[in-house]
Write a structure and sequence with these properties.
216 residues; alpha+beta; four-stranded antiparallel beta sheet; 25% strand; globular
Length: 216
């Protein structure tokens, strides 16, 4: 939420689309309204001018890693991360176009309406969900192994697609905007092991928010 407030520039969800997205997700996870309000208000007393940054990394086996960070000292943070990267056969690749190996998409997971879960084959369910996706403004849809239906959309349509699906009685279980790889990189077992250690070290740093990769 603090990231969303910084990026959107307002503590009012009605005026801050990013904050609105985070708040709606928190409500779906049954976070109490009082807790949400407390977190939002705490951003007003935090004097650090922290900002969100996307750091590009060339990892083992030439894989690409996008590291989302939230910090008030990017230069200092990159010095710390550089040591971790060097120990794990990786380096910064900012400006080399790594971001082009990813597409930014809204990902919405939802349980289908009750009437669609009864006596429907996977093929029939997918056909109906595809019609609903078109109606709601989503770009793609698929049925996952756990029965959830995954809708993909552009970030600009993210909120509207969620609301349209809810009007069709879909129960949204998760919604986020993420970077999806459009070109995958196959790694050797050795490189995969190095990547596993690298991810663990990066994720343990408090200023690292999320990691995305194009590993096959």
């Amino acid at each position: 939420m603090k990231v969303a407030v910084q990026l959107g520039g307002s503590i009012d969800p009605k005026l801050n689309l990013k904050l609105q997205q985070v708040v709606e997700q928190a409500k779906r996870m049954s976070m109490p309204a009082a807790t949400i309000d407390s977190i939002i208000k705490s951003t007003q007393t935090d004097k650090r001018q922290s900002k969100s940054h996307l750091v590009e990394i060339k990892g083992p086996g030439s894989c690409i890693i996008l590291c989302e960070v939230f910090t008030d000292n990017l230069h200092g943070l990159k010095q710390i991360l550089a040591t971790i990267l060097k120990k794990n056969a990786s380096k910064f690749s900012d400006g080399s176009g790594g971001i082009h190996f990813f597409d930014e998409k809204g990902i919405i997971l939802a349980d289908p309406p009750g009437n669609l879960q009864e006596n429907k084959s996977q093929e029939d369910l997918l056909e109906i969900a595809t019609d609903h996706a078109i109606e709601c403004g989503a770009e793609d849809v698929s049925i996952l192994e756990d029965g959830n239906i995954e809708f993909l959309c552009s970030p600009s349509a993210f909120i509207n697609v969620q609301r349209a699906l809810e009007k069709l009685n879909y129960k949204i279980t998760s919604a986020s905007i993420e970077y999806l790889p459009n070109k995958l990189q196959t790694l050797s077992d050795t490189d995969l092991e190095i990547c596993s250690n690298l991810f663990e070290k990066l994720e343990n740093h408090p200023d690292v928010v999320k990691l995305y990769d194009n590993i096959a």
